[in-house]
Design goal:
- This is ABC transporter permease.
- It is a multi-pass membrane protein.
- It is found in: Cell membrane.
- InterPro entries: BP-dependent_transpt_permease, MetI-like, MetI-like_sf, OppC_N.
- Keywords: Cell membrane, Membrane, Transmembrane, Transmembrane helix, Transport.
- The chain contains 15 helices and two strands.
- It is mainly α.
- Helix 3 packs across helix 4, helix 3 crosses helix 13 and helix 4 runs parallel beside helix 7.
- The longest helix is centred in the middle third of the chain and has 37 residues.
Length: 368
């Protein structure tokens, strides 16, 4: 079966599901409502959205941000006496958090406050990077897809040049320019990571450009800028949102790598990658200094990937997987494969006339 037939069948399946959903509630839904309902049927994406929102709220509400104070009274730069060797104090003396829930580092600073500050900085860098890369990629991709010709050639050759240069090397060069400003670091990283968005938007605009309503707008004398802004970009919003979500996750990992190499966020500020780099030598003696920032990086990256997967399924029914095709816990652990093997063995045995020797015995193995 060809890929076109498979894609058409998946589209038809999505349309049937949407029709059932509308008939069940006895009223029609707009496209936006259908997208929201498809997304909220994607349980891993919804759970990940809640987890990511909880991480963001915890990071910015605990120690505060800027002039806004937080509910945690420890400052991430304040030193103090080391208690109990700096070990985590969660669930001690009847308290859930304790005085230092994530422990203390070498000079007695509260590690919970440091991890929260690191999460703030990493999230800001990732958000700014995804925003800047999306803006640049959308603009260049839409222009290249609409005007074609030499304009497209110039933009795509520039895109190819940026792709050829290793992203980590390019980002490291720009990271040294940013200094201690996390916003500037995000802007410069966005200038190095826009190529994926550009190529996807260009492909989408090339498809939309052949639509009848675009031809009608051109025939009516609409300006190219109006056609791009009013028709091209809004109808590419699904591709843009999904790719921006994955760009956010990639930016988190890129910032972590750069900070680990000493080319990202600079001291005295902290980030999750910088905390891992700073306390990697303490992994064998005080592993919690390595665990907590690493745990937050994993949570943010996994949550972002699941959210992106849910958005992709919601915006593009052709890529949506049925419930049976989604990996379950049994499938991940290999239990489903074991069940299939036993089922196949039984089917082969029945087809060959092989009987279970215990099926005709009762009690301690005597024949009926």
């Amino acid at each position: 079966m060809s890929n076109d037939k498979i894609s058409q069948q998946m589209v038809d399946l999505a349309e049937v599901e949407d029709t059932k959903l509308q008939q069940k509630s006895r009223h029609s839904y707009s496209q936006g409502q259908l997208i929201r309902r498809r997304f909220f049927r994607h349980k891993p994406a919804v759970i990940s959205l809640v987890v990511l929102a909880a991480v963001v709220i915890l990071a910015f509400s605990s120690i505060g941000f800027g002039p806004v104070p937080g509910w945690w009274d420890q400052h991430y730069q304040a030193t103090g006496s080391i208690i109990d060797g700096g070990r985590p104090m969660m669930f001690q003396d009847g308290s859930i958090l304790g005085e230092h829930p994530f422990g203390q580092e070498n000079v007695g600073r509260d590690y919970f406050a440091m991890v929260m500050r690191g999460a703030q900085q990493s999230l800001i860098v990732a958000f700014v990077t995804a925003l800047v890369s999306s803006i640049i990629g959308i603009a260049l991709g839409a222009i290249a897809g609409y005007f074609r010709g030499w304009v497209e050639s110039v933009i795509m050759r520039l895109t190819d040049f940026v792709i050829v240069v290793p992203t980590l090397v390019f980002a490291a060069m720009l990271g040294n320019i940013a200094g201690s400003s996390v916003v500037m670091l995000g802007v410069l990283l966005g200038c190095a990571t826009w190529t994926g968005m550009c190529r996807l938007v260009r492909a989408e605009v090339l498809r939309i450009r052949e639509m009848e309503y675009v031809s009608a707008a051109i025939a009516m004398g609409a300006a190219p800028s109006r056609i791009i802004i009013k028709h091209m970009i809004p109808n590419s919003i699904g591709v843009i949102i999904v790719n921006a979500t994955f760009a956010f996750v990639a930016a988190i990992l890129l910032e972590t790598t750069l900070s680990y190499l000493g080319m990202g966020v600079q001291r005295p500020e902290v980030s999750l990658g910088l905390l891992i780099e700073q306390y990697q030598n303490a992994f064998t003696t005080r592993p919690w200094l390595f665990w907590f920032p690493g745990l937050f990086i994993i949570i943010i990256a996994l949550a972002g990937n699941f959210i992106g997967d849910g958005l992709r399924d919601a915006f593009d029914p052709r890529q949506a997987r049925t419930r049976d095709s989604r990996p379950s816990l049994g499938g991940v652990l290999g239990l489903r494969s074991i069940q299939r093997a036993f089922r196949l063995k039984n089917e082969v045995g029945m087809s060959e006339g092989i009987k279970d020797p215990y099926s005709e015995t009762t009690g301690s193995g005597r024949k009926k």
